[in-house]
Amino acid sequence: MKTLCAVFSALILASAAYGQGTILFANNGQTQITNFVSMAPITGPGDYKFGLYVALFGSTPSTLVTVTTNGLIAGTFQGGNVSLALTPGTQLSFQVRGWSSFAGNTYEEAYALALTQTPPYPLVGQSTMGFFTIPSSGTISIFGTGPGQVGGFYLTSVIPEPSTFALALLGLALWSARRACKK
After folding, report:
1. Whole-angstrom Cα Rg for the chain
2. Quick check: is 181 in a domain?
3. How many domains does the chain have?
């Protein structure tokens, strides 16, 4: 009897979790991801990864929720439906980040590799910040032109910022050259 009760409870919990709202983690032809180097939609199934990063609305630290790769249709990926174990009515901020698959399993790994500036050069990019409220049922589409939705974005190579020390040395060199020319 205890086993039957436990199985029944698990089924009720599973159906309740399934009934909560889900996030459609996929884009479409109107919200394509573009390779900034070639200025064309990304191609090559599995060549790029996309991560969904979420945080409580108004907070800055975000957590990687899921990762998927691009598919056969240029410029798009299909990550399916993602369920979050949060109470309906919870407001969340999100961002979609993309990177070259060979550069790592997370955006942070890919970005760190991109900063080394050694071949092969990975492409990285991120969407604008979006937001949504977890519904009690139904599916939320995070890509689009509606309130809180994000559009497509570019994947590009990283150009590191010059360090303060390098800029100070450049300034000193230019100042020295100017003084030498005045003499």
Report:
1. 23
2. no
3. 1
